[in-house]
Structure to design on (472 residues):
């Protein structure tokens, strides 16, 4: 354990899911052949007139409302100057003095609130591609609406940072303002990190720019913690600077001394009128915000007795949660527990990537899944049969009732006791092995019972009955 406390504040960039860019009509869609979604406005040609995308401002308000921010009735765009080939205008239109959202916070699972300083709206820059000793520029991303969520230095570990980002991602996806795909760059973050002795003033920080995966965020924080503690242990002083992260080595490296806001020569953007958000607009946008993941998860643990982990998994993706809610409503028994178990154990195994879960389009409709839940809850089929039925429904597109009758699961209930007795009689050597202490031998007898019952016997009961009979 290091004697230092780690202090972290994140600046998170989130691209908004608008059709068009922030100041022109070009498509804001990710990808596309380089430099095809461009026009004189987003290429920064002289004499052009930008106009603010209303949707982008509304999305920022929605994000702010979901994060408990105050919405400024009037906010303004500012010019932030820097010269770099990804920014043809040589200034980025951003917000500095009066951002759209102020304050707010992200609540971690242990209840700690990570305060936000503000959220501002700005345009994304182009993308530089370094190839064979040359640098190419793709301006498709230039001018795409970007929100910057600036957090206070309230995070205390890499785990805090990862959880904060994950919660942010869940909320932004749920309200629908961004897909927050770190792999596509629609969510990226800068990590500000410093160390201090517990109770001391904040130390001098380094800022690690442009991290684009959860793994990188974690590695960068771990590397910086080591690097800065070595410096402090040796009696040195951490330099305030901007650092890069090398995903290949997991190390950070110095890029440049940190610039101050003075260096950017911020001044009010004269070409864009102020952003005015009326109480009526706020009321209209608030009404569009659905139940957020945290509230949803709390409802799942309270109403269905789900574990916090399961509840969090189901409420993390909006479409997953809506599917779950719809299936439970359809099942008429309203039992969320079996629906949750089947979704998390079976469906999540088949739909396993982040992107697929976000899309969530299983071949079984929520209604049909609800019918299966109803069968399981009424005791017509047991838990392991429900899994088999689900898998058969998945592959065949048939309804639960059809599959149940095809598999012969709807016959009379199985007599577990006599099946187990017969299985022991039919497998004398396995029975002897088990009695001699080879607990693995039980598997063979369980397998026999399951086969004899054509999978209808409830596995848990078979297990306990066999153990009882074998120890008599
Ligand atoms: P700047 O004006 O240089 O951008 P800010 O005060 O706006 O600095 O802070 C930028 C980010 O750095 C914020 O996310 C904030 O939480 C974080 N931060 C500020 N001071 C520290 C510190 N001592 N250690 C870690 N993070 C910090
Ligand atoms: Zn354009
Ligand atoms: Mg700042």
């Amino acid at each position: 354990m290091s004697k230092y406390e780690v202090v972290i504040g994140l600046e998170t960039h989130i691209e908004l899911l608008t059709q068009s860019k922030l100041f022109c009509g070009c498509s804001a869609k990710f990808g596309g052949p380089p430099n095809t979604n461009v026009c004189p406005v987003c290429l920064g040609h002289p004499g052009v007139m930008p106009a603010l995308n209303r949707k982008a401002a509304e999305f920022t308000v929605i994000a702010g409302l979901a994060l408990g921010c105050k919405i400024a009735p009037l906010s303004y765009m500012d010019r932030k100057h820097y010269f770099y080939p990804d920014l043809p205008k040589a200034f980025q239109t951003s917000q500095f003095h009066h951002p759209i959202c102020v304050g707010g916070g992200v609540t971690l699972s242990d209840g700690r609130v990570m305060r936000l300083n503000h959220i501002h709206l700005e345009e994304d820059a182009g993308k530089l591609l370094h190839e064979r000793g040359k640098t190419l520029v793709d301006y498709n991303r230039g001018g795409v609406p970007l929100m910057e969520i600036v957090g206070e230095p309230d995070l205390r570990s890499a785990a805090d940072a990862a959880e904060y980002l994950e919660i942010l991602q869940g909320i932004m996806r749920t309200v629908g303002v961004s897909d927050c795909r770190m792999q596509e760059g629609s969510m990226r973050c800068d990590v500000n990190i410093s160390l201090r002795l517990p109770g001391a003033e904040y130390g001098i920080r380094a800022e690690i720019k442009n991290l684009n995966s959860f793994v990188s965020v974690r590695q960068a924080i771990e590397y910086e913690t080591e690097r800065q503690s070595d410096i402090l242990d040796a009696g040195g002083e951490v330099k305030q600077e901007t650092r890069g992260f090398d995903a290949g080595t997991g190390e950070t490296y110095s890029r440049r001394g940190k610039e101050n806001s003075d260096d950017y020569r911020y001044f009010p953007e004269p070409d864009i009128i102020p952003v005015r958000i009326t109480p009526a607009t706020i009321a209209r946008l608030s009404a569009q915000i659905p139940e957020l993941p945290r509230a949803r998860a709390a409802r799942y643990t309270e109403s269905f007795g789900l574990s916090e982990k399961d509840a969090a998994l189901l409420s993390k993706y909006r479409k997953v949660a809506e599917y779950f809610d719809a299936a439970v409503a359809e099942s008429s028994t309203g039992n969320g527990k079996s629906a949750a178990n089947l979704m998390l154990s079976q469906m999540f195994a088949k739909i396993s990537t982040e992107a697929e879960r976000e899309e969530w389009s299983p071949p079984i409709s929520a209604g049909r899944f609800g019918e299966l839940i109803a069968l399981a809850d009424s005791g017509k089929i047991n838990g392991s049969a429900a899994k088999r039925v689900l898998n058969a429904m998945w592959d065949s597109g048939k309804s639960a009732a059809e599959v149940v009758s095809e598999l012969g699961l709807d016959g009379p209930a199985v007599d577990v006791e006599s099946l187990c007795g017969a299985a022991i009689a039919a497998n004398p050597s396995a029975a002897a092995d088990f009695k001699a202490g080879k607990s693995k031998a039980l598997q063979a007898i369980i397998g026999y019972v399951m086969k004899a019952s054509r999978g209808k016997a409830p596995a848990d009961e078979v297990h306990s009955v066999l153990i009882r009979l074998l120890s008599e």
